[in-house]
What does this fold into?
Amino acid sequence: MKYLMCLRYVGTNFCGSQIQPSVRTVQGVLNDAFEALFGVRCMVTSCSRTDSGVHANGATLTVALPDGTLPIPPERLPIAVMPHLPPDVGVYGATAVPDSFHVRHDAQGKEYVYLLYNSPVRNPFYENRAWFYPRPIDGEGLERMKEAAGHLLGTHDFAALMAQGSPVATTVRTLQGLRVLREGELIRFEVEADGFLYNMVRIIVGTLVEVAAGRISPEEIPDILASCDRTRAGMTAPPEGLYLNRVFYTK
Amino acid sequence: MKYLMCLRYVGTNFCGSQIQPSVRTVQGVLNDAFEALFGVRCMVTSCSRTDSGVHANGATLTVALPDGTLPIPPERLPIAVMPHLPPDVGVYGATAVPDSFHVRHDAQGKEYVYLLYNSPVRNPFYENRAWFYPRPIDGEGLERMKEAAGHLLGTHDFAALMAQGSPVATTVRTLQGLRVLREGELIRFEVEADGFLYNMVRIIVGTLVEVAAGRISPEEIPDILASCDRTRAGMTAPPEGLYLNRVFYTK
It folds into this structure.
């Protein structure tokens, strides 16, 4: 029996999602919760790894039960496991999937959201949940970010927008969506792609913010992409604004 | 020199807003922050007291400087005091007001917001920030709440919707607004009045939720108000969903 479900967590008090000895990780918490529920160690697999401080609204995971384990109907699973999870982790929307399903290899794409809080003073409700960026971004800056975003859309080699030294077979990705929206004092970036390189969303956001600030012009974006040179793109935006929002699978 | 400004705080880690010895309170934190900034104890006065766990998005306070204290321009004050405040408290929108201005007595009304998270499973992002209420509230339940809200609007004796034993000169208040909105899995209550009795918003929300659940009918509301009997109204909703959102002053 194998379940697919969605995962939420507030990343603030985790040392990232991937299991490591003697630190608190999302994977470690999930392993323990499903073991407590089913009375046996299960195979828990996540759609991706996130860094310390990064959040998830709609990550995915699969739980495979060892043969002979008494299953729970999928629709009951999120409620059943809830008492075994800490308050900063939750699961929802469980379904049964074939044993051949792979939560990472079968993913067709992902959507990340990045929140930036743009105000001269901090807002306690966004502490650790958005990037506090006090320098004003006006309507013109927002338009420049949207123009730069247009240059990033499509299929490109994104090596310039990847943390240096990350081993990967290819750095070509297809960016299907990159929306920049202002909602009061929040600026919301929605980024959808068939896959993401290490730190890619945070470097995209950091680059767009430097475009808003006038340190990079929107017209430079194609050159920066073509250069494959990380030093030409903008800074890496901090982790606390980043949310893994959705993972797409074909039906 | 007297300043009026708006105040935000996440109430989770405070023993309420009013100062008490040897516990952490919002008032205590503000007293210390302004003393650190101006180098002298200032007279810090808040618009109202809130209970442990209750939040504020737009409370108000005044800070009166002792004669001879070097003032700071009002527009600079929120930024200047920020380094002296903990991450769960912030101020914004400061203006200079006459010495005769009183932040509590001159208030014409207030708006509270109450958030209820209505889903079978907890959402970590609303932990301590909304009432987790797993029993489904459907469209019909929402309509019943709106109907009941209509009966609460206007000028009434709200004694039935006040925590018992609260000393107060009169229990008559005018409810100018009571909106019930669904935003996905959140139900948002917006409550505006010329003044509020102790626990009044939480008892209004608790009563409306019992209306949604069918334990109280909307038509009973006028009788409950007329009875002035706290035991006839609904439960007191928990503090973590409550936000003091705005305080109104005449210009």
The first strand of chain A starts at residue 2 and ends at 9. The domain at 2-97 of chain A is CATH 3.30.70.580 (Alpha-Beta Plaits). DSSP finds five helices and ten strands in chain A.
